[in-house]
Amino acid sequence: NKRISQNSSMKAETDNKCYCFGKPRVCSVCLTRPAQVASRAGTPGYRAPEVLFKYPHQTP
Fold first, then answer.
1. Measured between alpha carbons, how far is residue 56 from residues 11, 45, 46 in Å?
2. Low-confidence ranges of the chain (pLDDT < 70)
3. How far apart are CA 52 and CA 46, in angstroms?
4. In whole angstroms, how far apart are CA 57 and each of 7, 23, 25, 44, 53?
5. What pTM did the predictor assign?
């Protein structure tokens, strides 16, 4: 029984491979995956001093 459950779990993992990369569609495997979360870089709410002082010659 244990060996059967291991084989079925391994098969389920191999069935979840995605082959839609680079194609103009999204497969059902990708649609069922959870969304990825990434933290935003930088300091939230930061404004450069030239913006705060409304300096006319700001750096690009």
1. 64, 21, 19
2. 1-15, 59-60
3. 10
4. 67, 46, 47, 24, 11
5. 0.36
Contact by Cβ (8 Å): 7, 17: no
> Which helix (DSSP H) or strand (DSSP E) does residue 15 occupy?
helix 2-15
The token duo for 59 is: 């750096």
Hey, what amino acid is at 13?
E
What is the pLDDT of the chain when averaged over all its residues?
A: 77
Among all chains, which residue has been given the structure tokens 């999204």? 26
CA–CA gap between residue 19 and residue 33 (Å, rounded): 14
